[in-house]
């Protein structure tokens, strides 16, 4: 009798865990699909934040103890060789956690979905995950590919 009750509780617990995991996967999949659909409305992106996906190639931050510093992010659009950007961002008070995530994404060559936020903000979310980095975009140097594939720097920067 006790064995049946324990077995029944284990089956119920496993079912609930399976449903929770399925709900999480559906949520992440829906986020990826919505962000991709939103990006297809911009056929010729003028900013790295308009790309459907990017890869973080480097994250370089000022190392001043006790102060939040600015961070340089070098990003590339994997489907368009030679298309890249350097973003100058302020990660704010959550700088240490954000730098850790960016370093992991860079090492894993992770696909990241960029999105604009109100008041000059940006959000980078790792695809197939709920990991996010929020920052304020200070400036952007956008590089578009040229016919020879080397890439040319766009004039000026962009920022808030």
Proportion of beta-strand residues? 25-35%
- Summarize the helix and strand pattern as letters: HEEEHEEEE
Mean pLDDT rating = 81
What's the main sheet like? Answer: 7 strands, antiparallel
Helical amount: 25-40%
* Helix vs. strand class: alpha+beta
Distance, first to last CA:
68 Å
Number of helices: 2
* Count of extended strands: 7
> Uncertain runs with pLDDT below 50, 5 residues or more?
149-160
Shape: elongated
Q: Give the radius of gyration.
A: 20 Å
Molecular structure report:
Strands 1, 2, 3, 4, 5, 6 and 7 form a 7-stranded antiparallel sheet that branches. The protein has a domain at 48-153. Helix content is 32%, strand content 30%. The longest helix has 38 residues, at 2-39. It is α+β, with helices and mostly antiparallel strands and 160 residues long. The termini are far apart.
Structure summarized in a few sentences:
Helix content is 32%, strand content 30%. It is an alpha+beta fold.
SSE inventory with pairings:
Layout: H1 2-39, E1 55-61, E2 70-76, E3 84-90, H2 95-108, E4 112-117, E5 121-126, E6 132-144, E7 152-153
Antiparallel strand pairs: 1-2, 2-3, 3-6, 4-5, 5-6, 6-7
Can you tag this structure with a few keywords?
7-stranded antiparallel beta sheet, disordered C terminus, alpha+beta, 32% helix, 7 strands, elongated, 160 residues
